[in-house]
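Journal club side-thread
Mid-discussion, someone asked how the predicted structure for our own chain would compare to the paper's figures. Pasting it here so we can look after the session.
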Amino acid sequence: MNIQNIIFDFGGVIIDIDFQKTIRAFVDLGADQFGNTYSKATQSGIFDQLDKGSISEQDFVEDLKQFLPDHISDDHIIDAWNEIIIGIPPARIEMLEAAKKNYSTILLSNTNIIHYKLYTPQLAETYGYKSLEELFDAVFLSFKLGMRKPDRDIFDYVFSSRKIPKESTLFIDDSKHIVDAAKKYGIKAFWLKDGMDVCDLFEDGLLKAAVIEQL
């Protein structure tokens, strides 16, 4: 099997995230039922709109205020929303640097402007990369494109933009429904299950034979 291109998800694959930390942060602010409206499996409404960039950061904050006491500030809301972001372990940076020597590496992420404004300077401060574009060969972010996985249009956009064939491309994501959609689209896809680390799929910058055999 000749894999030449690897499309990586970001949250849960490259950068560590914790949905429960954000849920707990909003509960602590007074949004007792926040966990019922937001989770890894079911994001809807304003969360989906923020990921697609169809509402502004300020509109998002104002919308969330309906679930919170009057004294909660914009900064409190943004800080709680950002609790999900843990960071990128050094081993993942090293893996990406090595993999980039052997593959065309592409980032495809459902992400939003608020998180982007947090992890971008963190990447620069910690690892010296001024942007994700310096770490990958190409970067596709949902809030900039107005599209979101698992919708077909975002896959169409990535493949037409990069002019890469599906048969030589591997997609790695930690959400099963998105992996299933990618497979239906015609891409080889690997589901990074809970407890797995993407670094374990590689050795010296190359996909392990055991991983390729599973595709």
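Post-session note: The CA atoms of residues 93 and 127 lie 8 Å apart.
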